[in-house]
């Protein structure tokens, strides 16, 4: 099947390269007609989903557009809360777990929906979902998402540096050992002149953090924002990571310091 065209180079290929993701595809959204169409694919085995058209609110993509936030189902055909007129096409491609992520323009309108899908219902964990959402966000902001250059998350980077440090200690050649230790040092210590980018929170991350600042718990926040408690936790976790915070209170404090909260 033909690969992606018309989207930021490498995004769908990068998503398919993630563990457990079998297929990545995208839909262009027409804000004027309220119609979106699946038109770019990577890893698909059939043409059953190509050119599938739907209105906002229909199917997983339609729900994603309506909510303007990522939507995940562990098993599409069995999922509640979405319409099911596309079950036949999804089943024909053999898809089960599907994540839909909106790409929102500067005016707050969804201009694309990017999907990551697996042929097993138990394939997606929260870490993979967070990674896929981050990659789509990087593509929207213009940051590089080529498969060979996708950035490591902090946990992976720590493991890599630890492994390199261990290898360096075992090298007998002092010159080679010193060169590897220099590589490790540069990895841990970026140039001092490198500017610190401003913290950017998504609209939903900011909504959740605003409610946290009011002293509400996750369940109450979910009720106020129309989100599940699990989704509230996910947005809060993402906001805390971006703000380099280990507690809810610290995240609120840092957000105020960044001018994100009053």
List the secondary-structure elements in sequence, H or E.
Answer: HEEEHEHEEHHHHHHH
Through-space gap between termini: 50 Å
- Describe the strand arrangement of the main beta sheet, using strand numbers: 3-2-1-6-5-4
CATH class of the largest domain: Alpha Beta
Q: Unreliable runs, pLDDT <50, ≥5 residues?
A: 1-9, 141-151, 190-194
The average pLDDT score comes to 80
CATH topology name of the largest domain:
Beta-Lactamase
Structure in words:
Helices cover 44% and strands 15% of the residues. It is an alpha+beta fold and 262 residues long. Strands 3-2-1-6-5-4 form a six-stranded antiparallel β-sheet, with helices on both faces. Helix 5 packs antiparallel against helix 6 and helix 7 crosses helix 9 (229-242). Mean pLDDT is 80; it is low at 1-9, 141-151 and 190-194.
Summarize the structure.
This protein is α+β, with helices and mostly antiparallel strands.
List the helices and strands and how they pair.
Elements: H1 11-17, E1 23-30, E2 35-42, E3 53-55, H2 59-67, E4 71-73, H3 87-93, E5 97-104, E6 110-118, H4 126-141, H5 154-170, H6 174-188, H7 203-213, H8 218-225, H9 229-242, H10 248-257
Antiparallel strand pairs: 1-2, 1-6, 2-3, 4-5, 5-6
Helix pairs in contact: 5-6, 7-8, 7-9, 7-10, 8-9
């Amino acid at each position: 099947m033909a690969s992606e065209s018309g989207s930021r180079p490498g995004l769908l290929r990068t998503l398919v390269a993630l563990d457990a993701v079998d297929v990545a595809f995208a839909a262009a959204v027409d804000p004027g007609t309220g119609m979106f169409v699946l038109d770019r694919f990577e890893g698909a085995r059939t043409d059953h989903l190509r050119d599938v058209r739907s209105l906002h609110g229909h199917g997983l993509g339609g729900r994603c557009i309506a909510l303007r936030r990522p939507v995940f189902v562990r098993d599409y055909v069995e999922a509640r809360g979405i319409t099911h007129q596309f079950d036949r096409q999804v089943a024909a491609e053999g898809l089960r777990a599907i994540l839909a992520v909106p790409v929102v323009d500067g005016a707050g309108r969804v201009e694309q929906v990017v999907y990551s899908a697996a042929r097993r219902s138990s394939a997606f964990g929260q870490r993979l979902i967070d990674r896929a959402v981050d990659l789509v966000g990087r593509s929207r902001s213009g940051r590089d998402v080529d498969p060979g250059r996708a950035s490591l998350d902090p946990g992976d980077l720590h493991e890599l540096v630890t492994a390199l440090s261990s290898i360096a200690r075992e090298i007998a050649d002092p010159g080679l050992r010193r060169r590897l230790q220099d590589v490790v040092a540069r990895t841990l210590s970026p140039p001092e002149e490198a500017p610190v980018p401003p913290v950017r929170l998504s609209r939903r991350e900011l909504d959740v953090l605003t409610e946290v600042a009011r002293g509400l718990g996750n369940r109450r926040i979910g009720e106020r924002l129309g989100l599940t408690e699990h989704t509230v936790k996910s947005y809060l976790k993402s906001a805390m990571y971006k703000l380099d915070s280990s507690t809810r209170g610290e995240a609120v404090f840092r957000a105020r310091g960044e001018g994100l909260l009053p």
